[in-house]
């Protein structure tokens, strides 16, 4: 040993710290003691006490030279501990000894700036047997007289020091091994102490401390209970007089309150309050622990208030916090935390009593807390975060989004001041993310949702895998992912949400206070997965786990109420799938139980009442309890008075109220109920953006309510809007397996079916049946009975169209299957029974089996026995029953049934309100009954009554054009059968209604289908028959007018949107305004009528449905405005007949350049009417012609044309039709004159211009007259007008458009002669006429349309195709794609004059609708070309150039004039070499127009 070492003595000392602990549960102090820069002691987190034995070296004089440094660390407990150095002081050990002495039992104080915290320090010489310190964290026991081996015989001082050191180490390093070893040592120590040992309390306190430290990391209820257990033992020994009593009560009370928060045992918080109350009474006012005690006392009382709702507890909590605040004056280190705690309590009072002043006060205290924290203080971000949370509560109260926005701004500021390594950063990120998510739920801004998820993800990155609050961030991120899944439907989002919420469940097991909330999100995920993938086991699992959770959750637990609400939601979801009323009964049972236990003023009381009302409403839909429905409506209305528009329950309650009102309307028929329901649904839609939980329910409800209102009251706008909303819902769910998708699809399908009933577009019926069958067969369908009913109704309608008895049999089977699924008095059961009876009535009409009719009558009579007297549908049932009775009267010759039928109709009429749409079936049935009775009695009175009701039915109020039209056609049929004088009026009415019905369809192709599928299918010769009827009546001018009005309907309707009213502009200011408005709306309708959507017939195409229905809705809205403007224009002087059908005196203007001959072929008679520019029309009866004969001739012509044997057909056509006409014409105009032919029916497909006797010495038509054709008189009149708004150039320009190599997809062969034909045309054009060509790669649709627009003359050489299925898709084959007829119609050329269509089939009409004359040449004429040459069949491109050469040679032989085209064509057909150009190719070309 060196001499220097011998010069120094070693002194042994024991240093004991009895530190000051701050117990406000937000922060506390740790004290570190360093000896010569080496830490020898750090206090633990509870009592802040500790003891250490250490040695120091003395100099030669015996003086201690060691330096002791005391450091004060402040620990902030806010989700993650934050530790900061508050202050420190250092001094030599010798100075301590000289200043304070040693062996002072009471110790001495050391003040640590800047917090002015006093440390109680005891410094003593070390002895072999140490004194016990009851208040120490790890106290060394006195030597008890214990015998034994092992730990009991070890050095107790060493064990104590070891345990203390291990706890200090764990506090710094968080090493689990250290605390485990400490617990082992202390437990061994405790077990070795006799029950009466004076050290037992100190040891129990130390073990409690160790378990508390482990609790901070384990979050285990077992550790919490152990801490409570051992501190309770310590408390038994430390009486109120002990210096350690108050700190121990503070600690034990805090643990009891935490235990309550975890387990929900109310007795724990009661015990804590009892301890605090007793300690408060014994704690001196100047005690350094009193402010901590008051703080915890106030927090515990607040917890009790949140359970019991006792206002005295809330007041006591606030009062105690205020007393605590007095003990923490400005400058006190814990004042900011007291201000914050007080703000919390006042905020609670605000939430329960609604005093806005409290909310203001809370914010004031929070801002006061901010004043005591600088931006550099580690607590500063936490306080900013708390202010943000308070602002969120403010938002929840007033719905003011600005409050939430400000809260988010506070989070943003807090994040700016919070360093990356700040322990509370993860909490801040999570709370910031939570409020962004709340804002997303309000605004629907997806950016908020995305940023929220980013913040949650960053929060997780800042947390260790075992972080105490990691479960919360996982929980929040899972919820955000679920919301994004709802918006975009990406399955990966749902899968990731389930992964995160499962991880969250692992971190917070059944004993964790947040376990229930995580369980609820997890079961929500199961429901979501069920809704996405349709697996019912997910739904059953959600119910099972939710109900299991509610059974082990105490009713007084704070989680009980939200869990019960969740259970109700899960049961409600399963009910919507299984339709099991037992699920509703369980909801009602749960709610009844909760409403008995929950105080009336508690906020959850309303939630359970709403759940109960929702279940009762659903049960009403199942069982039809009217009394319950009245209660439900009253309840929802009362609730709505207290809900602001921004309240989270606003849309849900509004939707349910609307649903209940709609149900009551269906029960009693009060129109106000249905109108209110529509308005409520509409408001709900406004508050539910995409992604909102109630979005689909709101739009689906609105669509269904509008559909019902349309069906009852008939506003067509309701049907259009309904289809838009229902299509939107179906489209939103078409790509998912959402369980409501089948129901949504069925509702949409039924709406389409209802439109079919209005417009009678057979495509709608087919779509409806397809969709309903898909909904019925869908694996997720749960609304089985309603889908069955809708499908049965649609099949019944399809039977009406096709009379397929299989449809009717399936319909009846479906009705009979669905009927037992409803309670007898359920409104749906009434509708079902009536529809079943009506289907049986149809079955009788089909099979004539009296059992079917009797069964129908039985069902109708059962309906009447159940139905209320004032039910709005009762009159319709009476009408149906009357029809059945009439049928039975005819079958059984039963006068009683006949009288009963009339009596039932009279009763139905009395019950109907004025202008009810149900008058239509009443009138309809009267015509049948009186007509049948006339046949039996031949009493003219009955016939007179029958035709009176025919006329009434054709003008019945409240119904749609289709029904009016069918009534008029039935009138026409009966008038023909009975040879009634009203036949002509019936025809006039039918043609007028036909125009109106077709015009209601938005698109051109849709109008064609409406015309073909609805009317022409049954009455293909309506116009010809009407014309024949007028002829038979001797009114030739009317005959011409009816022929004009009933043919070329589609062209006529389109022309209305291109009408010009320049004369109206000059009348006055109103005239100018009306003219401008008319032109604007006409242009809009013209644009909208183009076919933007092809047929949508399958379920997989429903994604295009929303746009399709929206376009139709907008078209009808614009059309309604257009009708209104036209009506106003007709009120102007001189415009009374604006856009009304032309009278004869105007129509004869078509004959200004030569006679026009209408050849009318009707089943009644065949005639020609010759129209000249002056004088009355002339009738030429075609006595040798018949409709059947002309049809046969048309068929023969097609066959002979293929065989090139045309002469016999031309002769037959001449002899039967044209010879009598030419004979009369020769008395009017000489040979060589121009004549325009206007054929009807099958005559449109015959070459009138080529007919003749073809006998030696006889003249054929080409040698008698120069023939032209016109679809209608008005079309020819339009051709004579200059339609361009620009001044036509003196010299027109010609463009030659050709395409020899069309697009490969067209399937057409290459036309080798096209190039030569284009060159030929250009070579024949005179130099004075500008000429260009578009061909080859430039011969595209866009190139052709541009050429059509800017050139007056067009020669087009390419393949032509007549589309037999959709004639408006007839086309020219160009390089890129077909140039369709519909494209040509929309082209709007600038100065069109003449077009030569050198292509096949360009003037071939539609054989299904010949009077509509829909072909490419007619389209060119409609587009403005005054004259068009087209082809009636295929053109041979090897000989076509010969006709083209002769035509243009004749055309340009004199003045360039497009009106010379007919003569030039006539000359060409005669001039060509007949050996090179066969007959069929000489007459294939025809001229149309002026």
Give a brief description.
This protein has 1490 residues and is α/β, with parallel strands linked by helices.
Rg over C-alpha atoms, rounded to the nearest angstrom: 48 Å
Average pLDDT figure: 81
What structural class do the secondary elements suggest? Answer: alpha/beta
Determine the strand fraction and express it as a percent band. 5-15%
Q: What form results from the Cα inertia axes? A: elongated
Give a written overview of the molecule:
The protein has 1490 residues and is an alpha/beta fold. Helices cover 60% and strands 9% of the residues. The protein has 59 helices and 22 strands. A six-stranded mixed beta sheet has the order 15-14-16-20-21-22, sandwiched between helices. The chain has a five-stranded mixed beta sheet with strand order 11-10-9-12-13, sandwiched between helices. A hairpin with a 2-residue loop joins strand 2 and strand 3 (38-42). Helix 8 (266-282) runs antiparallel to helix 9, helix 29 packs antiparallel against helix 30 and helix 53 packs parallel to helix 57 (1440-1451). The longest helix is centred in the C-terminal third of the chain and has 26 residues, at 1105-1130.
Q: What does the secondary structure layout of this molecule look like, with pairings?
A:
Blueprint: H1 3-6, E1 9-18, E2 27-35, E3 38-42, E4 49-58, E5 67-78, E6 80-92, H2 93-100, E7 108-112, E8 117-125, H3 156-173, H4 176-191, H5 200-218, H6 221-237, H7 245-263, H8 266-282, H9 290-308, H10 311-326, H11 335-353, H12 356-371, H13 380-398, H14 401-417, H15 425-443, H16 446-461, H17 470-488, H18 491-507, H19 515-533, H20 536-552, H21 560-578, H22 581-597, H23 603-623, H24 626-640, H25 650-668, H26 671-686, H27 695-713, H28 716-733, H29 741-759, H30 762-777, H31 784-802, H32 805-818, H33 827-847, H34 850-866, H35 874-892, H36 895-911, H37 919-937, H38 940-954, H39 961-977, H40 983-999, H41 1004-1016, H42 1022-1032, H43 1036-1046, H44 1049-1056, H45 1062-1065, H46 1069-1088, H47 1105-1130, H48 1144-1147, E9 1156-1161, E10 1166-1171, E11 1178-1181, H49 1187-1203, H50 1207-1225, E12 1234-1239, H51 1261-1264, E13 1266-1269, H52 1273-1280, E14 1294-1298, H53 1314-1324, E15 1331-1334, H54 1341-1350, E16 1353-1357, E17 1359-1361, E18 1371-1373, E19 1378-1380, H55 1381-1387, E20 1394-1398, H56 1416-1422, E21 1427-1431, H57 1440-1451, H58 1461-1471, H59 1479-1482, ...
Helix pairs in contact: 3-4, 4-5, 5-6, 6-7, 7-8, 7-9, 8-9, 9-10, 10-11, 11-12, 12-13, 13-14, 13-15, 14-15, 15-16, 15-17, 16-17, 17-18, 17-19, 18-19, 19-20, 19-21, 20-21, 21-22, 21-23, 22-23, 23-24, 23-25, 24-25, 25-26, 25-27, 26-27, 27-28, 27-29, 28-29, 28-47, 29-30, 29-31, 30-31, 31-32, ...
